[in-house]
User: Fold these one by one.
Assistant:
Number 1:
Amino acid sequence: MEPILECRAISKWYGAKLALDRLDLTIPRGRIIRLLGPNGSGKSTLIKLCNGLLTPTGGELLIGGKAVGLETKKIVSYLPERTYLNSWMRVHELIAFFKDFYADFNESRAYDMLSRLSINPKDRLKTMSKGTKEKVQLILVMSRDSQLYLLDEPIGGVDPATRDYILNTILSNYNENATIIISTHLIADIEQILDDVIFVNQGHIVLTASVDEIREQKGMSVDALFREEFKC
Amino acid sequence: MLGKLIRYEISATGRLFLPFYGALIVFALINKLFFSFDTPVPDFIANVTMATYIIIIVAIVVLTYLVMIQRFYKNLLSDEGYLMFTLPVKSWQHIASKLVVAVMWTILSLLVTLFTIFLMVFNSEMIPHIQELVAEVQQEFAPLNHAAIVSLFLQLSVTALISSVATILMIYTSIAIGHLFGKHRVLASFGAFLGINFAIQSASSLFMAFIMPSTIEKLDEFDGAFVEIMNLLQGLFQISNVINILLCAVFFLVTSYILQKKLNLE
């Protein structure tokens, strides 16, 4: 089966600053992958390129064998690292919005998750705490039956109990052929659900390995390896 | 998908416009009430409500432009763009949906304002006056038949519509060009707007310099013949339409190209 994501010598410059340096990367379907790296290493840049929010300076990026565009947006579910929803909209209006535009949106799953997390669908985003807003965003994104999920810092502002619930949700909604790429600093929390780890630093991929390999070969957790690789 | 985008655009902007329309109608009614009292209302109060009415009209004009700019910049090219540009729709559909709705509010603002003026000044005593006015206009336009007046009015509306579409697209293009810059994007957008404006102004004054002298000569020859002035005006409308339609096409293509091929959200 063709890989879900393929980067061929992808480069991104911001003015005179190099964010990604001729990066090559192939990600197969059906994996849960952790994207790791210090601040400013290029993680968000890579994710934004996959969504077409940034235009690469050079190279080629394919999702499911297609260049980023209308067709790839149908199969990619993206959670940005910022609040990106209209704050004046009510939660049920946002659900209607997602349902309208994404054919793969599962409305009843979204309402289930909302009620489990006791979020009132009639509330406006404006009146919610930062953590609750993040929950709503995550619920919307995870209620799609996508082939590629790109989660950029998804659980930063969320309390530990909700975090557990969300991780379980990610796992239970996980379609065997879908790939999830999570970029986060909160390390130990999600180690048990990961298949692979990609270390990024200064626009380069430093290491691609499965979590089992890291444990067997290096005899340490991903967390410990990260601290060693990126020691300040 | 375009229909859905338009629907969401209307609901996102309607909540801003409708309260102003409502307020305008309320103040028009209050003014009308004051006009109709037998014993006049103290000047002070009548002045305040009239001034408020006019301020609301000014606010609606400002709002129309502000929303036009804000919806394009904020909804597409700032944080909200993260949502809009991950939707499976084409870039040109974003531009088209924003444009259609901006034009819609421009027309609606005009209609609502005209309606409130009518609301205020109209009463049964005016019917004879209006009939007089209609008769006068008819006499003035006597050389033209009914159909010609209607067609002139329609042409005027079409020309106004096309030129407002061109203005809106010019604003979008300026914002899109500003987006090409790494820093100071708002400033760059403003600069792009001034630049485009300057280019168009220069081109049109150059054009006028060639056309106008002969036109003015012709006007002298006309000797004030109404029909011929009308014909001349219609000719000018048509030229302006053709130029504006070309500008619209260029603006739309440039904006669409930038959003599709040069997008770099911060």
Number 2:
Amino acid sequence: MLTVKHLDIAVIGDEDLVSGLRLAGIGRYFMIKGNHDTGEDVRKALSELINEPDIGVVMILEDYVEYVNDLVAHVREGRKITPVIIEVPSKFGTKYKDVVGYYKTFIKAAIGFEVEI
Amino acid sequence: MPQQLIKVRPTKIELVKLKRRLKLAQRVQKIVKDRLSILTMEFLQTARETVEAKRKLVDAFSEAYKALSMATGYHGYIALEKELIATEAAPKVVAGSRNIAGVRIPSFELRGNGKPMRGYNLVDTSSWLDHAAQLAEKCLEATIEIAELQRSLELLGMEIKRTKRITNALEYMIIPGLQATIKYLNMKFEERDREEKGRLKRVKVLVARG
């Protein structure tokens, strides 16, 4: 059965990411300020977002993913289609310079051998 | 490794049943193998597209950050914050799903993006801000694109793992087990035939003597 849903986009990011995406019109955002307890803030924001049914895509800053690896893995292994967690680069550029390498580990985990892409 | 025999009563009916099960298992194995190869091809295709999309995403964001830093530099953080309050346009993702070899994978589309009026005050702002907003919308598009592809990749990957388990179970456990049991039953029946023949011979001798 084909069901079509209208879902929101949410952002968890630092000041620059959030301002940029607010310019593009996004209304759901969590701005993580300062460094005092980033991990705690990110965890709270993400766990709130993944429990909401009308969130389609969560954009999260790459640097924050290390604080919530378990939550991200949990969402990715789920059978539901949404929410999708997407890591976006920070203003200093991306952590994963080697895009192909990043996905190669993924391919190896799924089909058991490495494939040139 | 000796194959595990399936415990059945040694009757002809059971043999027929086992033969049927073997045939079914072989047919299922063929179908599941075909499915696995379709999934794998789809997976690799998606992986290629995802890599492309990721590159695009990174490029789009680096452009947008540059433009944004120009805009913030020109207006200042406080003025920018004031303009941002009014920009909310609530872009939505329209999420449907496609079906590839029995796996439901998402198909996303962005709606409500790229309106000509962005909500902020046109008198107080400059073209730097317009430029930044345009690039930010491009980022959003790229993100939605990669969201669809990456989720498909994840779902396909999980399905491939599951299908692989099924093919392995069929190939290394179920089918050999059935074959071994059928062979065992056949041997048992032959043995019984031989015993029967021997018994008949002895009876014949006894009858002839009597």
Number 3:
Amino acid sequence: MATVPWDGAIPELLREHLGAAVLDTHLYVDQPCAVLSLAAMLPGLELLHAEANFDYLVDITAVDYPKRECRFDLVYIVYSHSRNQRVRLKAQVPANQKPLSAVPIFLGANWLEREVFDMYGIEFAGHPNLTRILMPDEWAGFPLRKDYGITQMDNTWVQNNLGIESGQ
Amino acid sequence: MTSIDSNELVLNMGPQHPSTHGVLRIVLKLDGERVKSTECIIGYLHRGVEKIAENRTYVQFAPYVDRMDYLAAVSNGLGYCLAVEKLMHSVAPPRAQAVRVILTELNRIASHLLWLGTHALDIGAITPLFYTLREREEVLKIFENYCGARLTTHAFRIGGLQYELYEGFEQQVNMFCDQFLGKVDEYEELLSGNRIWRERLRGVGVLDADTCKRYGVTGPMLRAAGVPWDLRKAQPYSGYEQYEFDVPTRASGDTLDRYFVRLEEMRQSVRIVRQAVANIPAGPIMAKIAKVIKPPVGEAYVSIEAPKGELGYFIVSDGTTHPYRLRVRPPSFVNLQALDHMAKGALVADVVAIIGTIDIVLGEVDR
């Protein structure tokens, strides 16, 4: 099964307001996904929240493609209670650009963005408290990046804090 | 140097504290007995589950999901299997779906029972814990008979079920259902009319519907605020559309309401289990699925109504045997974020009740 174009009210709304920043809208396994430019991501979320009743931010996450020019994909999943519809928004993160924090729209974005920062090192501009959330604050490295090995760890941290040579 | 506010007291609660339900640490800023702000420090149980997933095959990773919300391992497994099946464009056969529903609902009951027992214990009512563990034991025995494990069950397989039902499964499940509803009434007798219990919970940790949505809070917490939203109804999966059940809601979104919602959910689960067990279709338990799981290139997000809220799996497949990226959207993690809102202005003693009412499992918060 291949992706099919996604048409309808939501893609139209996005295109009408964001124009060329909407790079693609498609369905895969019946799940709608819109690919935006990073600059259009927050306006897009705001638009869906205000105009289309997408009142629940389900998740924010990232995917690492180390060989690509824009290394990370940022993925937002939003849901509308009144429409009973879930939509995924994706954007590539260029190296010199920081995504804007979605906290002003969705309070729940706070920890989700912190986790993305913790795991990938993607910094969100305007986040109220962008610190590590699952890893220790002083940890060096971003574990979910593809170039971070499965057994790799911050040995300095381990030696300083756990009093052992290595966690391995 | 900034001046120090002499009225503020900083209190560390946890990570080793019996009422934080695991290794949760909360930094409480207090003004006398009142909480000014809270900060959750989490990650003590972080095992890098999402990283592990990228280094395992789809089949190898399946047992790991049981170890996130270990009180509802069956739900975790169901969500994972459904997500991989979505990517494989395959659907479990009707017989497998019915058995999945039965076990998942039994697991919901087990999860709510442990919540009820420990929550009551936190509040100071010791007795319910012994009763709830007694009933939970019956559920765990069914799991044990079915797949040999009690907690980390790994009950399902991608494409269906690993095991056929055992002899006497239906009878055992029906027997449990028959006696269980009376037990729920007994819990109610112990707690619902108990003045201390009511006074202790009413108006504590209020979270209205709007705030729930802004935080992304789901599950019983959202329903206690009056939103009849349940993924089993909103976007049915695994054949839930065939069963009759109600989505219990309450209006005021406080700790007492969340207690009533969870109690009623257990009754509704019994209703679903009864319907499902009376009508388990015959047929195969596994879909025709390749021995080597290699989903085509693509991505999907699949979520289910876990006992604690929306549990989602976002999987990116690059066409190999390993997930390129596997993200777990844990209900506990997202719901815990609302703690600060609920605890602000509350008494220190109420923080214990508020942590309990969120129903978190740290294995899932930290992953």
